[in-house]
Structure formats: C-alpha cells, structure tokens
Amino acid sequence: EIHFLSFGTSLKMARVLIAMLGFLSPSLARAESVCVTGAGGFVAQEIVAQLLEGGFEVHGTVRSLAKTEVVQPLRDMAKAIGKGKLVLHEADLIVEGAFDECIAGRDFVMHTASVFNLAVEDIERDLIEPAIRGTYNVLRSVNRTASVKRTVLTATYCSIWSFCGSEAWECPREQRPKNGEAFTEDDWATTLYPDGGLAYKGSQAYCRSKVEQDKAAREFADHNGLDLVTIHPALVVGPPRGPRDDGVSMYIMKAFAAGSLVHQVFPHGDIRDVALAHIMAAMIPEASGRYIVSGPHIPTDHEMWTCLKQAYPSMELGSEPNVAEPHWMRTSSKRTEELIGRALTPLCKSWVDAIGTIIQKGYAVNAGLKENLKSEL
C-alpha cells in the first residue's frame, strides 16, 4: 500500500505513482528500489523515511557500518515505520567503485552525500575535490548499471543565486533574477562570475563546492546520456528524523530552540518538501532539469520571532525585534509545486514543527518551554 497522499500529493498524482510502482499493473511484480547515498544526513534521513513509508526497498550508504551513532538511528527509524525495506552499505565518497554495491540492480539513485566541513585546511583539496570526485564516482557506477532509470542529485540554491546581494557575503556586483521579479530554475549563480563569485572561506566555500559539483554532474550526465534531475534546496529546516547535529540546518534550528534569535540571511526550504521533491523527481517520467525548494523570501527577525512566539508563548526568545522591510530577494516555487502536487510548506509551519520536535526529543532545552512543554507542543 502506498501512502503518498499523506505527503500532500494530489489523488491524481498518487494514482500515477501507484500505477508506476506496479500496484495496478500485474506485469510489475516488485516494488521499485532506490539507492540513497549519505543516508545518515539530515535531508537523506527524511528521504529514506518517506521512501520506506511508501513501501520502497531502500539501499542507503554510510561511511562506516561500525559508526553506530549514524547507523542505529536509521535502523530504529526503519523499524518504527514498519514498511518497505532498508539495506545499508558502506561507501567512501572518494573511493572509486564504492557505490557499485548500493547501486547494483536499483531503479533510481538519489545522491545526497557531500562533504560539509567549514573548518578544512585546504578548500580545494578537502571540500571541492571530494564533492566532485564523489559525484563522478556515483555517476560512473550509475553508468555501469543498466537498471537505473534516473539519478536525482541534491544540489543547492547556491547554484541558482550566488547570494551576491544578500547579507551573507559581499560581492562586487549583485545578482538579480533573470526575469526581473523572482529567481527561478532558469537562473544560474555563474551568470556574474564563472565560479559564482564565491570565496574560498566558510559557507562560501561550501556553496562553491556545491556549484562545482552541480556543474560536473550535469556535464557528465550530458556526455554519457544519463537521466539526471537536480534538486536545489535553500537552507533546509523542519522536524529532524534523527539526532545528528553536524550540519548548519540543525545548528541554526537548535540555536533557535534554545532561545537564540539567529539573524537569517538565506531563504528556507522545508525538509519534507525537499525529500518529496527528490522522490517525485525520480518517479515522474516527465520530470527533468532543476527544481528549487525554497520559500518566497528571506524571513526577517520580526517574522521569525512572531511566528515562534505565537506558537509557543512561553518560549524564551529575547525581546521583540523591530519590524523591518523584507529583503528584495524573491523566489518562484511554481515548478516544484507542480512537481509535488501541492503548495510548499509555509515557513512558519516549518519552524514551529522543527522547534517542537527538537524540544520534544531533547536535542535542545528552552527554559521557558520546560514547564509548559505538553500544553504548548
């Protein structure tokens, strides 16, 4: 039984998916199988969960099967869901052929794995090169596997907008939307500068690695005739499936949950929408190209404070910020909403659900919510 309706998809689209999976076609006797690289990551865990809930056979890669803090939450999650099948494989991103086992016999591949470390000594060697080499390794395995119908790559909003013109970092020139109104899949961060204008430091370096990864993946796919679709999430927020906190999303969400109003300089995308976009991009034959998963604008401090205080009145979050004009940046989510069959999750709901989950699971403590946890969550 497939439960895509619980993800908010339309009845028509759910029926299409069911038919594709063989539940309405006796000629297809087995469920589709998917390889998800970097299965222990924040986004990947949600993808794995939604696939399992949909009855898929999921093969996921982790760097080491001996790393219980990564492996056990995945196994516990699969057991709690009680549907589908989860098989874990060991794979090192930069080892040639490491993904062959996971990809062998699969119908779809979702490549989410990427190095995220802002404290590396050598940006080129430790961040950019592994992102590109890892992507080549995955795509070479796909190229050797006749069963794979499509590969979906977790790209980044950085490939759409270089953030030249935001508070995130300074650039000699601002990148504005191609259509003059809102950023879409037709925009490229490399419009102003071949390298996106991104520096070799901090979060810019990570964005640079993702831009280079996106470019390399598309060139390889085009050259080898592979079916590749890329998903471009903004800062991903929403309720985490597991306790891992080594990414920027969990860091920011935990800071908010603990009572720090972190000034936002990026647009946001909901984790559930990001995962669903990956699944729909794989399943729907007509899907192609790029899909942005992002709210329409960068939230202001007042917007964030108001959202969370209305949901959790006793939450400690500092004094109310001044009302400010929203940043000029706008994003169109029309193409992605057509893909997933519904509107993207509202920003406030993403944050309310994220804070509730983080507090309930004990990933962060907020003194104001401690005594009122049950009544407000």
UniProtKB/TrEMBL annotation:
Signal peptide: 1-31
Pfam families: Epimerase
A Gene Ontology molecular function term of the record: oxidoreductase activity, acting on the CH-OH group of donors, NAD or NADP as acceptor
Superkingdom of source: Eukaryota
NAD-dependent epimerase/dehydratase domain residues: 34-285
Keyword annotations of the record: Oxidoreductase, Signal
Family (UniProt): Belongs to the NAD(P)-dependent epimerase/dehydratase family. Dihydroflavonol-4-reductase subfamily.
Protein name: NAD-dependent epimerase/dehydratase domain-containing protein
Organism: Phaeocystis antarctica
